[in-house]
Batch of 4 targets.
Target 1
Amino acid sequence: MSLPPSDYFDASFAGATQVVRIASFHEAKIFARRWVIRDKEPALKVLLRRMEQANSSATADSAIRELKQALACRGMLVTTSALSTP
């Protein structure tokens, strides 16, 4: 399931030099898997489990919103203003 262009978002791990563009539900799950492996945080494991069990577009949309919220809470959601800052 691909996201509309207005729903693409960028994420980055703390201290990482590269930004990851997340443009589909599949890419979101891959990012979440790697994030769980890296941080081993129980709340992230629950989020990943929800994403992997999503079986409808409504559930997938909800899971992506949760992922974006988790990224934003941890300062990992990259905004366009953050990208344009030298």
Target 2
Amino acid sequence: MMWAYALEGKELQAIDVASLSEVHKFGSKADWLWVDFLIPDENESEILAELLGNEKAIVNDIKEGVYNLLYMYTRYEKRYDYTLLSLPFVDIEKELEMHPVFVIIKKKMIITWGCSHCPVLMKAIFRTLKEYASEGMKTDIFFVLSRLLREVVSLNSKTLVTIRERINKLEEEALHKSGKKMLHSIFELKKQVSTLHRLLSLEKGLLCDVREGIVPNVRLNEEAKLVVEDSINNVSQDLEFMDSYDRGLDSILSLLNLGSIHRVETSINFLTIILVIATIILVLLELIARSAHAALI
């Protein structure tokens, strides 16, 4: 699926694009253009490659998930006349899953490329853009970029709620039971926390580079900078939460360790009592035996 968005006066126009000529024709009437790809098919991949200057190799590599520089984490790279950014967001069910969103910044054009998890994300940006345009407020490709960054940060923040709930559940379970299964759950969650912490750290680094104008082809106006600044503050807060989550998991491990020590002590005390009773019985038996022997003499 491929859509193009452009402003006509105060109204945001949207078309379902089927060819490169349609993109150029639609964009020729606008000051700037947003082209959004959702899991591009073969024809749309060719259009995307042409928009990037016949970059078929990189388009194929991204589709196949082998363009590792950008695929896993938040990064950016200058290529020819455009800048390519990766803005993955995460969700967590049984495991932590990353959903990459690629953004291409060209002169007066922004191209977004998402997966099947991205429609809600893009719709949120579209609604904000439409509202601003209808009120006659200034918008451009950096408006779209700054809102996209904020939405990605928001989605990643929601994942932290799920992690906190899982930690609370583990804390409750640790009071009643332990074992290999419990330890596996804790260490698995610690691994997810570590991965998300790395992602958020890189995300913050990218946001700071965007704000400071270090990212090639990205020059934000003051309003967009404020949006990015707000996102940076949110990520900083999320990183503090992640640190507290890791400490919380360490506390559960300490609780399990203390529980194990207590169980060992209980077992030792129980064995000691049995040993004392057995010793007393043996002494009594020996005394009885001596008495019987003395009576026979």
Target 3
Amino acid sequence: MAVARVSRTGLLTLLAAAALVLGATGCASKRLLRLENQVLQAENERLRTQVDKLEAQVPDSADFVQDVDLDVVAGWLDRAGFIHSRRGDGPSSVLELEYDGRNADFTVTVQHFPKSKVLFLATHDYLRLDDAPDSRGVVLLLVKLAALNYDLLIGKFQLDPDSGDILLSAELHLGDGLGYGTFVRLLEHLLGTADDTWPQLHRAAKGQGL
């Protein structure tokens, strides 16, 4: 009987210990669950913040267009306050705007080449090789053009050998679409560069040195 009592006592002790262990394990599990929930909540808040930032960076449809054409560009020119006209129809059509600068007045055209996905901007009625009165002026003008092209980061001066027209051009590649701000900044840069450098080119054409 003593053995039986001991066994029952031991069993009761074991059951009590097991109950304590299970209770402690349950409490620990609840604490771990609360901790995991807190971590997940913090992670969700972090991810939500990142998503909000990314959504804020997505350009508005009015500011960025995937498929650019001259209708889109015409709308951007209107928005930026540039008075312009359209010449020609279909793929050969050109947007044309007049620019009255501090140093020179000239025309800028915008052409779209869908196959190559390029928007081409160029000045016209800007300067001609004939503005040089003699061979010295021609040489100085060509040297000046080469020097300017070496320094230019955006745009390039070109000479049309058939007409003798000198123009400043720039290209925008449209493979990934185009934004309104990028287009306007490039146009303004082209206009400013052409206007600022005209006096230098004019002096070179007159043979007044570099």
Target 4
Amino acid sequence: MKRLLASAALTFAAAAFAQEAAAPAPEAPPSAEVIKQVVEFLEHGKDRGPALIDAVPCLKVDQTKGSPTQFQCLEPVTGPVSKGTTVFAWLQWYVPKDGKYEDITIQVLHGSEIRQTIDLPLSGFGRTRGWRGANLSKPGKWTFKIRKGDRELGAASVDVAG
């Protein structure tokens, strides 16, 4: 009886382990309605402006021509950085066909004070990435605000250690 119980327990544990080790089921694609909205935006959304997908504070961007990770953020900021560190605002966009935008800026703030404004002209079609760096020269909270004209599209913050 003890052997039978031990064998059953071992079999159950092995089956549970096998289920945990199995690869997760692939995620279903977006719904047709979501895809239609994206296609409509891509084809006819020029006057609506670009869509900001990501704003990531980044320490290193891959600029190696032909690299499989070219233009990707390789080292996102994950905690406080040292005073004097150059941090990039790495941005990923979705740009409608024929979209060309001259009014995209990145404001670099220390606390609530604007320390720098960087122009980021944007054009393309589909997914586009860009980045601009700023030297974070003082301790405290720094924020990258991404704007289109007078409208804020997103923001990302970095803490600088003293």
